[in-house]
């Protein structure tokens, strides 16, 4: 799977050429985001019940429901992975923890959201809208290796001195999130907005 800093920059260039206007659903995501961040800070992942609560909370932010909560074994593995991420931050290796990246609902998308709320400066969210940007078909969306490659490219981009399009920064400022979001969250949301547009074009 090909993800790269260059392709991310090209995508942001495409976004800069569009008129960016959030719809009501996207605005509702913005409203729920800080509340979920605050909730996850209060959860104690040493408790299995808190892992389950976090999983349900992350899925409350998705257009689907949680059908398969993590088992106690999966919750333990997630907890250890999260602890490693909090200690080593961006140096944490996803390739060493492949088995836990589908712990939430057997879904890479759902697990990515859970991980993001645990460590918002380490893990970007992955979903079908972002997959649209990279031209990926649906059967790639739930592949663990796809997410691993995506995270690697996102981290590389964030480590360099790249800038966001001015029109996108204006959207962040006007919605009061420019100073509170991590760089990886800003990048993921930019790709999400572009991917939503691409998705509409595909469906249309």
Characteristic terms for this protein:
mainly alpha, 0% strand, 9 helices, 204 residues, 60% helix
Compact overview of the structure:
By secondary structure, this protein is mostly helical. Helix content is 60%, strand content 0%. The chain has helices at residues 5-16, 24-42, 48-59, 72-88, 108-118, 128-133, 144-159, 166-174, 183-203.
What are the SSEs and their pairings?
Blueprint lengths: L4 H12 L7 H19 L5 H12 L12 H17 L19 H11 L9 H6 L10 H16 L6 H9 L8 H21 L1
Helix pairs in contact: 1-9, 3-5
Radius of gyration: 16 Å
Large-scale geometry: globular
Number of helices: 9
Averaged pLDDT: 90
Name the structural class: mainly alpha
The end-to-end distance, rounded to whole angstroms, is: 26 Å
Return the string of H and E elements. Answer: HHHHHHHHH
Low-confidence parts: 200-204
Strand content: under 5%
Counted beta strands:
0
Largest sheet report: none
């Amino acid at each position: 799977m090909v993800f790269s800093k260059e392709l991310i920059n090209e995508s942001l260039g495409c976004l800069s050429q569009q008129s960016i206007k959030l719809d009501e659903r996207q605005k509702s995501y913005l409203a729920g985001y800080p509340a979920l961040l605050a909730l996850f800070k209060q959860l104690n992942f040493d408790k299995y019940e808190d892992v389950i609560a976090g999983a349900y909370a992350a899925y409350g932010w998705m257009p689907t429901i949680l059908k398969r909560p993590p088992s106690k074994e999966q919750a333990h593995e997630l907890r250890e992975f999260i602890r490693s991420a909090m200690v080593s931050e961006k140096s944490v290796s996803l390739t060493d923890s492949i088995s836990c990246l589908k712990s939430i609902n057997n879904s890479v998308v759902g697990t990515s959201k859970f991980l993001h709320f645990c460590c918002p400066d380490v893990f970007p969210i992955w979903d079908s809208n972002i997959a649209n940007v990279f031209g990926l078909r649906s059967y790639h969306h739930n592949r663990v290796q796809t997410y691993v490659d995506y995270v690697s490219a996102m981290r590389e981009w964030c480590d360099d001195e790249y800038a966001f399009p001015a029109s996108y920064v204006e959207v962040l400022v006007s919605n009061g999130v420019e100073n509170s979001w991590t760089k990886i969250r800003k990048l993921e949301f930019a790709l999400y907005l572009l991917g939503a547009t691409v998705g509409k074009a595909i469906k249309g």
